[in-house]
Amino acid sequence: MNSRNRVQVKRFLVAVLCIGASFLYAPIAVAGGKPGYYIALRGIGSISSMDDVTTKGFANILNLQNDSDEVAGLGGVIGYKWKNLPLHTEIEVTHRFRFDFDTRDDGVADADTGYEANVDTTAVLFNLLFDFRLDGDFMPYIGGTFGWSHNTADTERRVINTGVQTTKKTATDNVAWGGMAGVVWDFGESWGADFAYRYINLGEVDTGAFSGGDSVTADAYVSHDLVASLLYRF
Fold first, then answer.
1. DSSP labels, 185-213
2. Quick count: other Cβ atoms within 10 Å of Cβ 61?
3. SS3 call for 25
4. How far, rounded to the nearest angstrom, does the alpha carbon of residue 32 sit from its chain's CA centroid?
5. In the chain, what are the domains?
6. Are the C-beta atoms of 223 and 203 separated by less than 8 Å?
7. pLDDT tens, N- to C-terminus, the chain (234 residues)
8. How many Cβ atoms sit within 10 Å of the Cβ of residue 141?
9. Residue 36 CB partners (closer than 8 Å, separation 6+)
């Protein structure tokens, strides 16, 4: 994680802690679903992008063919709704499918080289979420996400004029961080639904170096998520 991302993470954590501290002085009431443990099935739909793309070993000019994509993901959650504190906490494990990340080393005439990377991500996240416990079955919340992401890039390198292709598969481990806001709807004693927006930085994506030493790296895989979850409370 570069210095700019570290500064962003620190600022974000300070903001989350300040919001959380303000809630601790608010009246606490259990609204909607009962407190305690719950599990959830989570689906994610996102608009994502690869930011701060750099290269090594390129002979000519980087051409970003596709650095944004729509991505879907699935996962599970183990959570706990606190009775005497206005918050709920979660451990979330998700897998995001295929981000098509395509770049090209633009040469002269047909001497271009294309890089088509299919990126999958597995993440283990801790969510700290501060609740607005209102009367009724709806509970808005706001909070932060922090954890680990494993980005796998399956890349095909193709020399345009010769058609020669080589493939490489690499993985990078990263610190993932972000913020989210949403609402929980408890439509039964044990059942609920959670709808949220989340911004998340999933860290670096790297194609790895091919035989000529050429490679492509994105410093940040950034995603704007729409999250929907089905909850069961014990």
1. E--SSSEEEEEEEEEEE---EE----TTS
2. 11
3. coil
4. 28
5. 3-233 (2.40.160.20)
6. no
7. 555 555 555 555 554 455 444 444 444 444 557 899 999 999 999 999 999 999 998 877 889 999 999 999 999 999 999 999 999 999 999 999 999 999 998 865 556 889 999 999 999 999 999 999 988 899 999 999 999 999 999 999 998 878 789 999 999 999 999 999 999 999 998 999 999 999 999 999 999 999 889 999 999 999 999 999 999 999
8. 20
9. 80, 81, 83, 233, 234
Beta pairing class for 61-66 and 36-56? unpaired
Distance CA 187, CA 138 (A): 9
d(CA 97, CA 46): 11
| CA 88 – CA 38 distance, rounded (Å) | 10
Beta partners for residue 226, in sequence order = 45, 197
Place of tokens 């750099």: 54
Take residue 128 and report the two structure tokens written for it.
């700290």
What is the residue whose two structure tokens read 């650095």? 67
Whole-prediction pTM value?
0.83
Q: What is the DSSP string of 79-109?
A: EEE-SSSSEEEEEEEEEEEEEEEEEEEE-ST
Tell me if 74 sits within 8 A of 95, measured CB to CB.
yes
223 Cα distance to chain centroid: 6
